[in-house]
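Summary for the steering committee. The consortium agreed at its last meeting that each partner would contribute one worked example illustrating the joint modelling workflow. Our contribution is presented below. We chose a case with several input lines so that the handling of multiple components could be demonstrated. No manual editing was applied between input and output; the record is shown as generated.
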Amino acid sequence: MASPKTHKNDLDVGNDLLRLRITLSSEQVRGYAVAARMPGGRFESDAAAQREGLPGQIVPGNLSIALFCRLIAESLPGAKLQRLNATFRGIVRPGEPLSLHGVVTERREETSGVFLECDLVLESTEGERRVTGTATVLL
Amino acid sequence: MTGSTKKPRGAVLLDLDRSVVGSEFDRTVLDPVTADEIREYASFTGEPVGVNKAGIMTAPASFVLRMRGKRFMPRNLPDLGRSGFDAGKDIEILGDVHPGDVLTTVSTVHDLYEKTGRSGAMTFLVLRSVITNQKGERVAVIDQRMMFR
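What follows is the complete predicted structure of the assembly.
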């Protein structure tokens, strides 16, 4: 395991990315949905989401992906995200403490630069995985 | 599925009409990107707003997810089941987005396939959006997987 302070160019297979602990507020989710042009009651309020048969307001999948992008950006400053794949495994709710983390699964050196493959996880603080993903990053 | 024939439980694997695969269902030229939009978007995600070597603002990586066409779903889909939800996305980022860029999004039905899992048969619809800038350069390709059961 690498310390979070390990320089990005030294990261190798098995090294962890930073761990982010985030709790999204209802207002933040609503604001994101507007800024991201994602209309839908499910992102606006508990009452509107319940009318759609949901337990309450939910976090758009795109915002979970954006949090993965933030994890990459904070863990590997200056690196270029090339590809990101995300699989939504469960509902993410505002007000719920979330943990985001990742690990380097491959490092390869090509003529265009050094690439890292990373596995990414967004989970509850109890370890219930809500979104998983992979990323390809050019250092 | 063919026409309006009600599908028996678990029988979706046999008769899925894939003729829609490859069809374009939306082409939208979006309003020019503004610096305020980029800043506002980033304020909700916490992603850094970058600056390129020429000193020009660069949108955060996930900003391309905001580029939605006028039509979200194709009109001519076969009956895919009771309910659908967003199962995931695959994003390829090919270029930067800057204030003033005029982006075009072109959406096609990229794939339609079925899988059987522990909870039964599921149909996956993959919608691909290719986003290009005013120079005709691709800035992103986004595959959205919708799951129906």
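The helical segments of chain A are 26-35, 46-51, 61-75. The interface with chain B takes residues 22, 28, 31-32, 35-38, 61-63, 65-67, 69-70, 72-73, 80-88 of chain A (CB under 8 Å).
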